[in-house]
Amino acid sequence: MTRLDHMTWEELDARIKAGPPIVILPTGALEQHGPHLPLGTDAMMPTMLAERVAGHLDALVAPTLSYGYKSQPKSGGGNHMPGCAALDGNTYTLMVRDLICDFARHGLTRIVLFDGHMENQMFLTEASDLALRMLRAEGIEGTRIVKLGYWIMIDEPLEEMLFPEGLISWELEHAAVMETSSMMHLRPDLVRADRIPDHPPAEFPPYDVYPFDPHSVCHSGALSSAAGASPEKGKALVEALVPSLARQIAGAFGMEYRA
After folding, report:
1. Residue 217 near residue 202, CB atoms below 8 Å
2. Total-model pTM
3. What is the side-by-side order of every strand in the sheet holding 110-115?
4. Which of 18, 69, 73, 96 has the fewest CB atoms nearer than 10 Å to its CB?
5. How confident is the model at residue 131 (pLDDT cuts 50, 70, 90)?
6. Known catalytic membership, residue 189
7. How far apart are CA 238 and CA 148, in angstroms?
């Protein structure tokens, strides 16, 4: 794995001329993750996983886009909580579009948008569409963009390992067992183990009201209990996800996967 920002322009130019490498852009957010996980969890996790995945693909890892779209009450707790500094959808879309276009203009035409924040997803889609439209208008062909959230390869056996008593819902998993276990394995120094919450899942009405009333729900910032988290679960999850994600990315670019 090579960090794009650690290279000189001459080193990068040589890599591109040898055949464009895959460049992975981790995307995340600055968002509350309960009383026990850091605000940067959604940026740290895709970054750490991207670095591991890149080692299987001889890929470059670009600097992480650590700010994302606004935290939503039903999936992230809400942007009203301290530290949730976010971007408007249009701002975020145009930032990602511009990055894709500049990568492609310099010959980095195999791009992975590697997301760690669910609320970014449709804006990454829009950014990709706008970037391809702009590049075609400039006569730059052959750019291929792969968009995926790191969680997409969590299959039924991994779910059973993480949630032996059953998964409530992925939306309510925010700052709960999966993220807490992963961080306990990847960055245990940043997990406040004595503050891991154990409470019933948050309850929301089946509709949305604007403006959102932050007093309408009561939770710790974790939308369900994280008491079932463990570093062992995190280790098993990471060790399963990395090769699975690498295999999917390789296939998307027509490459032979190298374990």
Report:
1. yes
2. 0.95
3. 2-3, 60-61, 22-27, 110-115, 144-149
4. 18
5. very high
6. no
7. 16
Written as six digits, the tokens of 236 are 């098993």
In this predicted model, what pLDDT tens digit does every residue of 38-95 receive, in sequence order?
999 999 999 999 999 999 999 999 999 999 999 999 889 888 889 999 999 999 999 9
CA-CA distances (angstroms) from residue 35 to 186, 198, 229? 18, 11, 14
Q: Based on the residue annotation, tell me whether 174 is a catalytic residue of this protein.
A: yes
| N-to-C CA span, the chain | 14
Per-residue model confidence as pLDDT tens digits over 227-243:
999 999 999 999 999 99
CB 187 within 8 A of CB 44: yes
Q: Is 36 annotated in the active site? A: no
Tokens 């154990």 appear where?
198
Residue 13: alpha-carbon gap to chain centroid:
28
Extract the tokens encoding 174. Answer: 């925010």
Selecting among 36, 115, 173, 179, the annotated active-site residue is 179
* Residue 119: active-site member: yes
What is the SS3 assignment for 132-180? HHHHHHCCCCCCEEEEEEHHHHCCHHHHHHHCCCCCCCCHHHCCCHHHH
- Of the candidates 36, 56, 115, 119, the residue annotated as catalytic is 119
- Give, to the nearest 10 degrees, the angle between helix 41-57 and helix 177-186: 60
Q: With cut-offs at 50, 70 and 90, classify the pLDDT of residue 205.
A: confident
Choosing from 31, 56, 173, 185, the catalytic residue is 31
Quick check: is 6 catalytic? no
Active-site residue, 179 included: yes
pLDDT tens digits for range 87-107: 999 999 999 999 999 999 999
